[in-house]
Amino acid sequence: MTANTSFADVLPTQITRTIRCASLAALAVVAAASVGACGSSSTDDDPYVPAGNRVTSTPTASSRSTETSVIRTTTPTRRTTPRTTPRTSPSPRPRTVIRGSVPAILVGTWSGGSSGETAGTSYSFASDGRFLIRRPGGSITGVAVARSGSLTFYFSGKSVTSSYSVTELPELYGYRSLNLEIGGYSYVRDI
Question: Which residue ranges form the domains of the chain, and what is each CATH number?
């Protein structure tokens, strides 16, 4: 729609409805006259026309015209397309269920800090391998699998593998922390 178009411009008006109704009424009169003028192409005794589909006429008491009491027509149709069995779409392949597996030392939330490239980003791991990555502007959830120094994240039908390592940081102000390095970026968690 353009900016100048309103609903009134799109919706049919009373005049167009009247024209359409008049056209349909004229079409109905022509169709009825055709049936009356042409009649049935077969006689009432035609064995190929089922009795329920035969046109029967009875004279009316008030006029000498013939009024059709029941009109049932069936037109034999020919199939122009070959009959085929309905196609069924192939069943979707069952999804492979990936079981998460992370070492106990990864379980918890790891923070990227408040400055630098990892600012506002955190990784959270559950003991069954489920993970949540929070970043400014969005988050990712899925299942992680740790194997000999690599961590594979499975999410949204995709997978990403990164190297990882965990080291203990020196005690600072009485707090002990661990450093998780994933693909060259550091995240910290208190012990």
Answer: 13-70 (no CATH), 104-190 (2.40.128.280)
